[in-house]
Design a protein that fits this description.
The protein has 678 residues and is α/β, with parallel strands linked by helices. The chain is built from 20 helices and 16 strands. The longest helix is centred in the N-terminal third of the chain and has 20 residues. The structure holds N-(4-aminobutyl)acetamide and zinc ion. Zinc ion binds next to loops.
Length: 678
């Protein structure tokens, strides 16, 4: 299996620059690229990546998407003087030509294709291309919005042609609508295009009707264009994550792409003068990590916008760090999407209901009279949002953001534990090697007694329990001391082990431990102080135990070969987990589990986005295939889920709805519609 992360950067792409005064275009500066690269150097990320050289895109490649007229105009600018360049630039909405623009745009195309080749040929698993000019506004026959050639669209056509791909997902997290990309793939069911964008009821550039949520694609492409318009500025981490949980990810898993391309604009990040949003750099680590669960990890990230140099470069670093599989910093801020975001999410879900099986039984309906619709004429640099308190409204505040980010990054970044996964001499260890694994010596019984006698006396009734505690505690101790990131232990008495693990972690000082039980478990830990949140996934309802804020019972039974658990992971477990913000996760897989291996692998893969990726897996199931898959997921390998997604039955959707209604006041990331419960 491929490993490694490609990084593509060519200094020559900094030569494209604005030669005259133009207040609209003057933010698209060469320093965007050099500052990003320098910050990657500062964090020592460059040397950890596989350096892949850029190349020029060929005319044939550019013509995969663009007209020959457009190509000829672009080529002709190479020999123009400033006056002529200015005149040609004036033919487009927000574009400038420089004599070296054609060369740079051609390198941007070629760099993107080099990245696609590296990933598709298995030289690396994923990667990022730092390119200028950007691409997603560019259309078949026109430059637009700082974009000359549509790098990502060309890459998608190229991948279809060269590698015979049938399903490609494009995720456009730039704050502007990539209308160029939408036009190119509108009728194409083989490319699923997702874009969120600042929209403000069509008042924000490019102010198009077709950027709204009801533009779902045309003809055979119906259902394969997803627009999530933001009608307010100030959207933040929880709004972006809610969009992924409740819109993009379920669609993406049902679509089951063979390759994921990201139109990666960071103007959706805090401090950006265009976006006026509030998302902090670590959210891009989470978005990246979530997308790494698709297409067997084949993820190509291509730079688009991003105009606040500090915000841009820190966000680029968070993205690359995540591609390299470093543990992920906790996302900061209150985990609750704002009302306006929920309204947008509700509307796009309603618009797509006819096209996606997972939405079939969801009771989605349009929200036409948007409560947040502004009737005021738009003024720039005002404060239109009432949902968000600390947004960036002027240059002075943009400088404040710079200082904020300096401090913020120091607070959230932490040293990566030297070893990723710990295990004891066990079934799991064989599968982990030669990954960076530490095989831990069991604690001896006296040590365990000294360490944990306060916690386990009532749980330990047999010698075999004590024995498995020795292994578990040795590993947990290394996780708590940050010597390793995660660990896996097989235990004949998983519930007792978990009971002790939870008490030990809380005793150690952890404030929020998320504990997921899969299968039959006997001992249900005490959750009363809120320091433990239990999600119990079992076949039958536990007698006398109904769900409450910190004990959630999800009755779920999969039919053979039907992984309908995916929708519960994406739409329920993940939102609850992100709302809780755990600092440690314990996952126990017991006997008689009602969930298949792909569901469990997905759970392990996704939950690594939380708790700085600190996970203890306690496995009682003796299925070697299961142990191997969990070990792989913990070691950071991308697990293939292809073809595994099956939408849940009506009965299960109904069951989940009842739980959601009951819990969405406590765990606000569950909210995805306005009429129930808000
Ligand atoms: C790539 C990108 C923005 C164009 C804004 C024009 N373009 N007002 O972010
Ligand atoms: Zn943009």
């Amino acid at each position: 299996m491929a490993s490694g992360t490609a990084l593509i950067y060519d200094e020559e792409m900094t030569s494209h620059k604005l030669l005259w005064d133009d207040p609209i275009c003057d933010i698209e500066v060469p320093e965007r690229l050099s500052a990003s690269y320098e910050q990657l150097q500062f964090y020592h990320l460059v040397e950890r990546c596989v350096h892949v050289p850029a190349r020029e895109g060929t005319e044939e490649e550019i013509l995969l998407v663009h007209s020959s007229e457009h190509l000829e105009v672009a080529k002709s600018t190479q020999t123009m003087d400033e006056e002529e360049l200015k005149r040609v630039s004036g033919n487009y909405d927000a574009f400038f030509f420089h004599p070296n623009t054609y060369r740079c745009a051609s390198l941007a195309v070629g760099a993107t294709l080099q990245l696609v080749d590296s990933v598709m040929l298995g030289k690396v698993c994923n990667g990022m291309a730092l390119v200028r000019p950007p691409g997603h506004h560019s259309q078949r026959n026109a430059a637009n919005g700082f974009c000359l050639f549509n790098n990502v669209a060309i890459a998608a056509e190229y991948a279809k042609l060269k590698y015979g791909l049938q399903r490609i997902l494009i995720v456009d997290w730039d704050v502007h609508h990539g209308q160029g990309t939408q036009y190119i793939f509108e009728e194409d069911p083989s490319v699923l295009y997702f874009s969120w964008h600042r929209y403000e009821h069509q008042e924000f550039w490019p102010s198009l009707k077709e950027s709204d949520y009801d533009a779902v694609g045309l003809g055979r492409g119906k259902g394969f264009n997803i627009n999530l318009p933001w009608n307010k500025v100030g959207m933040g981490n929880s709004d972006y994550l809610a969009a992924f949980f409740h819109v993009l990810l379920p669609m993406a898993f049902e679509f089951d792409p063979e390759l994921v391309l990201v139109s990666s604009g960071y103007d959706s990040g805090i401090g950006d003068p265009e976006g006026q949003m509030n998302a902090t750099p670590e959210v891009f680590a989470h978005l990246t990590h979530l997308l790494m669960q698709l297409a067997n990890g084949k993820l190509c990230v291509i730079l688009e916008g991003g105009y606040h140099l500090k915000s841009l470069s820190e966000s680029v670093c968070m993205t690359v760090k995540t591609l390299l599989r470093d543990p992920i910093p906790q996302v900061t801020g209150e985990m609750a999407p704002c009302l306006s975001a929920i309204e947008s999410i509700q509307n796009v879900r309603a618009a797509h209901k006819p096209y996606w099986k997972w939405l079939m039984y969801e009771d989605t309906s349009f929200l036409h009279n948007l409560s947040t619709k502004s009737h005021l004429p738009k003024k720039t640099n005002t404060n239109p949002s009432t949902d968000h308190e600390d947004k960036i409204t002027n240059d002075n505040e943009a400088a404040k953001v710079e200082r904020f980010l300096e401090l913020h990054m120091r607070n959230i970044l932490f040293p990566v534990p030297p070893i990723r996964t710990a295990t004891t001499q066990s079934k799991a260890s064989a599968y982990l090697l030669p990954a960076p694994v530490c095989v831990v010596k069991e604690m001896d019984k006296n040590e365990v007694e000294a360490l944990a006698s306060d916690f386990y006396a009532d749980l330990v009734k047999e010698d075999k329990t004590l024995h498995s505690l020795c292994s578990m505690l040795a590993i947990l101790d290394k996780i708590l001391k940050k010597e390793v990131c995660n660990g896996i232990v097989d235990s004949p008495t998983a519930s007792a082990s978990v009971g002790v693990a939870l008490r030990y972690s809380v005793h150690f000082g952890f404030q929020r431990v998320l504990c997921v039980f899969v299968g039959d478990m006997q001992i249900i830990p005490n959750t009363e102080d809120g320091k433990v949140l239990v999600i119990n996934i079992c076949e039958k309802e536990q007698s006398g135990k109904t769900s409450s804020k910190h004990f959630i019972s999800l009755n779920w039974k999969e039919d053979a070969d039907r992984s309908d658990f995916f929708s519960a992971v994406l739409g329920f477990i993940l939102p609850v987990a992100y709302s809780y913000q755990p600092d440690l996760i314990v996952i126990a897989v017991g006997p008689n589990r009602s969930i298949g291996i792909s569901g469990i692998s997905l759970l392990f893969g996704l939950l690594q986005g939380l708790a700085e990726s600190r996970i203890l897996a306690v496995i009682e199931d003796t299925d070697l295939n299961l142990i191997q898959n969990v070990a792989k997921a913990l070691a950071g390998a991308s697990v293939s889920h292809s073809g595994a997604y099956v939408p849940p039955t009506q009965e299960k959707v109904h069951k989940m709805k009842i739980l959601k209604d009951q819990l969405q006041q406590d765990w606000k990331m569950l909210q995805c519609s306005v009429k129930d419960g808000i």
